[in-house]
Amino acid sequence: MHEFGIAEAILTAVENRAEGRPVRLARVRASAMLRITEPVINQAFSMVAEGSPAEGARVELIVIPVSLTCRSCGHTAVSHDPFAVCPKCGGTDIDTEGGDDLVLESIQMAEAAHVPGHSRGDRGNPVGQA
Which member of 23, 51, 52, 113 has the greatest number of CB atoms within 10 A? Predict the structure, then answer.
């Protein structure tokens, strides 16, 4: 299951941002090309987060659609399904664009704590980068 690798990357980013403080929620933006769903990523995250400050935390997943271009009729559309057919002609010869973005948008702490120089409102760090 590729979800465990994604969950581990999310956990690393969450731990870097939380700096040891307990976490309640991680909001993650992911491209539809990653083919993950919120229930499955939460199950994987709960397993990899055991014993960490994120144990018991929930992942809120925001799926970013991919752009589709039909090679048969030229129609363009967006979809949350990277394996979609053309909505205009039903063609299956589709180019997709949207990448494999995975971004930790924010975390919500379990306790209201403030560490000087750090904000709970940090946003937009790519997962896998400190």
Answer: 23
Neighbours of 4 (CB within 10 A): 14
Dihedral in degrees, nearest 10, Cα atoms 122, 61, 16, 8: -170
pLDDT category at 129 given cuts 50, 70, 90 is very low
As a whole number of angstroms, the distance between CA 126 and CA 112 comes to 24
Residues 125 and 41: beta-carbon distance below 8 Å: no
Q: Which residues of 36-54 are buried (b: 16+ CB within 10 A; e: fewer)?
A: beeeebbebbbebbeebbb
What confidence tens digit (pLDDT) does each residue in 69-88 have?
Answer: 999 999 999 999 878 899 99
Which residue has 């048969």 as its token pair? 72
pTM above 0.85, yes or no: no
Report which of 103, 88, 37, 96 is spatially closest to residue 66, judged by C-alpha positions: 96
Three-class DSSP category at 3: helix
